[in-house]
Amino acid sequence: MRLKPVPEPPAALDDLRELQRAVPLVPGSTDDCCARLRDRCGLPNRRVANDWLAFLRALGLARETPRGFVRTEADPTPTRVREGLREGVLLVPEALAALRAATTADPLTADALFESTRESVPRHDRARDLDWEATWRDRADRLLRWLALVELARPVPADADGTDDPAAPAAYVAGDAAEAVA
After folding, report:
1. Burial annotation 34-54 (CB, 10 A radius, 16+ → b, else e)
2. What are phi and psi of 71, to 5 degrees?
3. pTM confidence score
4. Which 3 state secondary structure label does DSSP give 181?
5. Pairwise CA distance, residues 132 & 126, whole Å
6. Counting CB atoms within 10 angstroms of each CB, which of 27, 84, 129, 137 has the fewest?
């Protein structure tokens, strides 16, 4: 099963350790784990904490037991996070395929990723969120930044097309790590 939440990526992969350490070693309920994440990591609310808990689970850095959530022994290494993204996060395989097809002349933007995956957005997400397109465009942007954090994507300078437009959307091609597993 692939999970949907894609929280804002940290500045550095090592910052994931703090989030992982906030998940208890002794199983705790979802509410308890979310409260710990909020309190220990300064997250703004329970929804954001719940998204982080699900994302840590998708990465293999936390797991759900019959008694609640616990952190795993796995370290948040680039390899572990790449594997977790590929195997546990919704639409990552599609994003990686689109990145492999992208070129520096025609790089992948969050808008283009959203457009290529919009039919894969779960129907219930479309029904319950009147602004689902903006929500999923934002998710595509965060997903591309996560892929760049672990070198599955490589940002292309905004002026790659010669426009030197600082307002140009971020764009990406496949990163070095993606090429190693392609």
Report:
1. bbbbbeeeebeeeebbbbbbb
2. -80, 155
3. 0.91
4. helix
5. 6
6. 129
Residues 6+ apart with CB under 8 A from 152: 82, 85, 96, 99, 174, 175, 177, 178
**pLDDT above 90 coverage of the chain, percent:** 87
Residues comprising the chain, all counted: 182
- Say whether pLDDT at 32 is over 90: yes
Neighbours of 79 (CB within 10 A): 11
Residues of the chain by 3-state class (helix, strand, coil), percent to 5: 55, 10, 35
Query: Using 50, 70 and 90 to split pLDDT, how confident is the model at 140?
Result: very high
Report the alpha-carbon distance of residue 161 to residue 45 in Å, rounded: 40
* AA identity, residue 54: A
Indicate the helix (H) or strand (E) that contains 155.
Answer: strand 153-156
